[in-house]
Amino acid sequence: MDSTISDHGVDSGVDSGVRTPLRSTAADGLKIVVVGGFGVGKTTMVRSVSEIRPLSTEETMTQAGVGVDRTSDVVDKTTTTVAFDFGRISLDEQMVLYLFGAPGQERFWFLWDRLFSGTLGAVVLADTRRLEDSWYSIDRLEHHGTPFIVARNVFPGATHDLDSVREALSLSDDVPLIDCDARDRDSVKHVLITLVDHLFALTTARETTS
Ligand SMILES: Nc1nc2c(ncn2[C@@H]2O[C@H](COP(=O)(O)OP(=O)(O)O)[C@@H](O)[C@H]2O)c(=O)[nH]1
Ligand SMILES: [Mg+2]
After folding, report:
1. Residue 159 and which of 8, 49, 110, 204 are 20 to 30 A apart at CA?
2. Amino acid 117: pLDDT
3. Is the pLDDT confidence value at 28 over 80?
4. What's the CATH superfamily of 2-209?
């Protein structure tokens, strides 16, 4: 299904910094959310693939976040997302993929239930230096019955192999788990294609058994 997310839509806009208007033929919107802990790379991921300059509400961290946002492992991070990241990818003339980055901090959890309505699937971004931050996301997705894959954003010092990550997150074998670099557009496209393939496989399996 590689053609699902083609260069056609993804290439425009981002590199040139120009905003790509939504095509007048666009008829169907698909929604995917990117969830995960603080500083795991959600904003970076949405930014890497969006054809529009993503809407993001990064704010310089204030005293309000001190002691709430855990920054000790994320030394370079001086901004935090206070709402959602939002990006868009045109898949073809009619299909548009909307990407939402959802804040991972506990004080935003109340927003999740609304966010998940109508969501096709989710990407859980994981950072192996702080795997416990991914647990809540996975638990909530399972609670909502939202299909998901897990993408480990590879930061320097990530030493665990994927098998031990799977074990640490208690992921069943049928949940895809891959490595990615949230800064790299091709890598993020691969993540989205993996999710779409997973959704396709789940639908096919459901149709076969029904
Ligand atoms: N080394 C490395 N740094 C990354 C990667 N992805 C994101 N970052 C950096 O990690 C920090 C946190 O990323 P951000 O997207 O703001 O995280 P968010 O809180 O999940 O939205 C930023 O300074 C990014 O530039 C990655 O794959 N590798
Ligand atoms: Mg962010």
Report:
1. 49
2. 79
3. no
4. P-loop containing nucleotide triphosphate hydrolases (3.40.50.300)
